[in-house]
Amino acid sequence: MYLSDLVIILCRPSESGNVGAVCRAMMNMGLSRLRLVAPFPLEDEVVRARAVHAEQVWEEAETFDTLSAAAADLSLVIGTTRRRGRHRKSVTLTPEECAAFFRGHPGQAALVFGNERTGLEAEELNFCSLASHIPANEAFPSLNLSHAVQLYAYQFFRLLAPAPGTAPAEFGSGLVDAAPRTFPSQTVKGTWVPLDRTSADTLAKSMTNTLASLGFYKQPGREDQERLFRDLIARAGLSEREGRYLGEIFSKALMLAGKKGNPSSDSS
């Protein structure tokens, strides 16, 4: 993974100054891809003033109505949160662990940050494949949004930035090209390209549809299992071919179960 593969997503940001400071933090660490989900009205002049020479990040930022739309083309989505628990992903990564995980993962990915006052909602965090938290004073664990982005961006820069002496592509005064890489599998057969979020969702749903057809869900729990399959697929970085193969296995299991339940199908 390269720095240009990483997207910063801000859900429902409400403070113009914070968004500008996020742009500056990103540019400091060679990041360029910013996406906003349902932002509150933001003041352009305030954003630019706080961006301090990182206006290009703001100018090229994309806006979406929902988190699912913002992450549809990405293969891995990690949500940041200070709150943990059964319904908020009890296992989370530190920024250092998060960067190390991204480093070994193919494809494009995102770090998702919530609203300045309320953080990520439970539904937004459940959408993410993994969670991450910043270790902090338990008596006062909430960080400013731009400070949180800066801490993560620094860890990613340390692991993913070009080695000293190399010649990275230009992006304003930053370190990397604003455009994401084009994965060679589009032209070269056999290159590993992980499923994007939309494809992972579709595969997970087809798997639970198969289990439902087999009578697996006698008790509530399908939604949790569908989320589990989706997160496993994303974290494993399944390729398109592997995803198709896994779907075919479940389809064949359903077909064989149908034959077993139909005596006439054994006549052959």
TrEMBL record:
Q: Which segments cross the bilayer?
A: none
Give a GO biological-process term. Answer: tRNA nucleoside ribose methylation
User: Which top class of enzyme applies to this chain?
Assistant: transferase
Q: Does the keyword Magnesium apply?
A: no
Question: For the tRNA/rRNA methyltransferase SpoU type domain, which residue ranges apply?
Answer: 6-154
Tell whether tRNA processing is among the UniProt keywords: yes
Identify the SUPFAM superfamilies for this entry.
Answer: alpha/beta knot (SSF75217)
- Reading the lineage from the top rank, the first entry is Bacteria
Under the subunit heading, UniProt states: Homodimer.
**What does this protein's UniProt record list under function?**
Catalyzes the formation of 2'O-methylated cytidine (Cm32) or 2'O-methylated uridine (Um32) at position 32 in tRNA.
Q: Under which name does UniProt file this protein?
A: tRNA (cytidine/uridine-2'-O-)-methyltransferase TrmJ
